[in-house]
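Methyltransferase domain-containing protein
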Amino acid sequence: MNSYERFAEVYDELMTDIPYVEYVEWIQSHAPAQNYKNLLDIGCGTGTLALLLHQSGYNVSGIDLSEEMLSIASARMDVNGITIPLYAMSMDELDGFSDLDVAIIPIDSINYLKEEHQVIETLKRIFQSLRTGGQLFFDVHSIYKMDDTFLDGPFTYDDGDISYVWHTEHGEYPHSVYHQMTFFLQTESGLYERFDEEHFQRTFSYEQYVIWLKEIGFSHVEVSADWTNDEPTEESERIFIRAVK
C-alpha cells in the first residue's frame, strides 16, 4: 500500500474543520441548481463536497488525480445509494466536458499545481468547458498564509486514532511551501503504524488570478476572503474567487 493511499484513508479526518455546507451555500447563492444543473467538482478528493452538492440538486461529476481518493469517493456514493461519474484526471489536462453550468476547484486544490503555466492551462480548459454564462468557483491559500501562517509550525494533532507531526519549509518558488507530515495510525492491535507524506503547494496573489481569468475571457470576477463576503485584507488566509463566462 503506497503512502498516498494511506493519506486518502486519513484525509476526511484531517478536513473536519472545513465548513463544506458553507461552500455549498456560496455556490447556491450565485448558481442555484434549478438554473445551473450540471456541475463538475475538480479535485473532488474523497467526495464529501460532491455528495452534498448532489443532495442539493446538482448533477455532479468529479475528477481527481488520485485514484485512491476516487476509490473512497465511489464507496461514499455507494453507501448513500447514488451514482456520480468520477474520473482520474489532472486538472490541467481537463478534457471531455462541455456546456457545464458550474465548475468548482474546492479546498485549495489548485495550489497543488507547481508551475504557473499549469494554473493558466487549468483555467483555460475550464473556460472552454463552461457554457456561456457558466460559473467557476475556487479558493486558494493567500500569500500571507503561505509565507507566514504555514511557517509557524511544526503543527501537531492527536485524536487517539490518528496523530501527526507536520513540518513546513519554504519551497523553491515564491509563495510556495513543502508540507512534510509524519502520521501515526492506530491499528486493530492497538499499535500505531507510521507513514510519511510530502506535499507541495504554491499560490499567487489574488490580483494575479483575476488578471489570468480576465485574459482568458471571463466576463466578471469576484473576490472575497475567509468564508465571508468581505474583500481580502493583508492577513486574510483563504481567498474565494467566482468567475462568470
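thats it. The first helix runs from residue 3 to 14. The radius of gyration is 18 Å. bye
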